[in-house]
Amino acid sequence: MMAATSTTLAPKGANGSALLTLMKLRTFIALFAVIIFFAIFAPNFTSTANMILMSKHVALNAFLVMGMTFVIITGGIDLSVGSIVGLCGMVAGGLILYGIELPIGYTIFFNLFEIVLITLSIGLLIGLINGLLITKLNVAPFIATLGTLYIARGLALLSSDGQTFPNLVGRPEYATTGFDFFGAGRILGLPVSIWILIVLALLAAYVARSTPIGRHIFAVGGNERAARMSGIRVDVVKIFVYMFSGLCAAIVGVVISSELMAAHPATGESFELNAIAAAVLGGTSMSGGRGTIGGTIIGAFVIGILSDGLVMMGVSSFWQMVIKGLVIIIAVVVDQAQRRLQQRVTLMQMAKAG
């Protein structure tokens, strides 16, 4: 009887492991599928110029996805990143064009390096506010970041009365020229934004895999109560991930306004949805405790290529929204199925070992 039982379980365990492996590789499979599909049906999809352009678009979403990944791993969510993009773009544009007017009749102009530093600091500050609301005032992440979403977007609109800051060429006498380097410049043939993404991705991956704060992020998402009892400073970890998310959003604000050489307060609308979709598609669990930077970058490529490919095929923007929504739902369903299958395979392996 025992031999028969062992023989019955083996194929199921093998099949379950194979299916689990396929689920874990779903992001790569999806990326391969969309590339093949659009290479066949979208005109000029594989041209060098289009590949570089798509990479720039993907980079913008990938910045947000890295920050969103850390947030989701801790069991949170950040809905404010799109508004931070818009606000930070307006901050950079306003400082380049007008500086800061003082009540005493003087105007302070900052050089380009200081402008970028101030802009990134705004993203960090909003992330800090999100983290403090969640940790110190016990506001749910969804509500806290929804509130800062509206505040940041409102401030962006107020900064120019809803108008665009155009022609951000800067003024040589104030050392504010060269802003276009971040969005249109190239190093060794690649856009600057791609290089920034590579550096930030390597740094984020190192933090996640090889530092105490990275291990604490996963511990908090896996079991917050256990993490707190083991001495992990949970509040510090949460504040860190929201500040990192705000920084990533600020970088996107700088890059977009630099690329366009203009800043508009509506920039970044719905960016948070693309970031969440890419993170989930890349294997980050919405229940927390699981995710990788590499996986979410691949997820960003899937979402970015899907968006650009649909545009090249002339698909309506309305249908694009429907398709992205379906991608999010399918990704979450597969993630939940993977979790359940992982538990069953683990139990079967334990039973065989026993």
TrEMBL record:
GO cellular component: plasma membrane
Cell membrane among keywords: yes
Segments traversing the membrane: 26-46, 58-77, 83-100, 112-133, 187-208, 239-261, 318-334
Membrane topology per record: Multi-pass membrane protein
Principal subcellular localization: membrane
MF terms in GO: transmembrane transporter activity
Keywords per UniProt: Cell inner membrane, Cell membrane, Membrane, Transmembrane, Transmembrane helix, Transport
Keyword Acetylation: no
Subcellular location: Cell membrane
Protein's name according to its UniProt entry: Permease component of ABC transporter
